[in-house]
Amino acid sequence: MVEDQSIQARSPRKVTRIIRRVVKGLAILLLVGIVVVAVGAAGIWGHFWDFRVGDPTSESCGNCHVMEPYVESLATTDLLGGYHAAQDIACTDCHEYDFDHQLNDTIAYLGGEVSGEGQQPLEPARYEMDFCFECHEHGSYDQIIWRTMDLGVTDPQAKGHDANPHQSPHYSELECNLCHRVHTPSVLYCWECHAYDFGNPQFSREAYTESVLEAAPEVTPEVPPQTTPEVTAETTSAN
Question: Whole-model pTM?
């Protein structure tokens, strides 16, 4: 009788010890899992973003092949992107890119949403003149006109008057992005009508022609249907 009571007393303690061991084992597995995930996430973040949050470098942006042409433009001498990069202007100085963007793009990349060939170019970002004035020394549009008033280029279509790209007789204070492009060749809006050129290597008449052709609607010429003369008994007898 005493022995049975002793066995019954030990049984709850034994069950309690088993439960504690199971809970302890699960806790250790959970802790190990958290550490593995944390180390893996840190490794991925370090690989893509060099452990930077909210201000990735241009090299980090170039890890995604969709961004490669934009990053490559920073190493050129005939694009505004190269001029900006030479002044230590980074991607995030113009493009807002916070932690949420980084996280979403990382998940999309790992999920294969931005991998593979045939990706479409990104939608061009367009900034208003005031944004450009935040860094550039021009305090007003009048100052820009003054800085380009004597470029030594005359306009044969305007009786030989000096041409000033920022002082058009037709418009006033055109937005910078109408002519200036950062990652692609810039174009001169005046080329819609005028033929003069200021000799700036950043501007490409070829790129302007391509942009005009791309913007032009596709016109499919109408081809009249071919008709076959109807053969009748009268035409047969006439022959």
Answer: 0.61
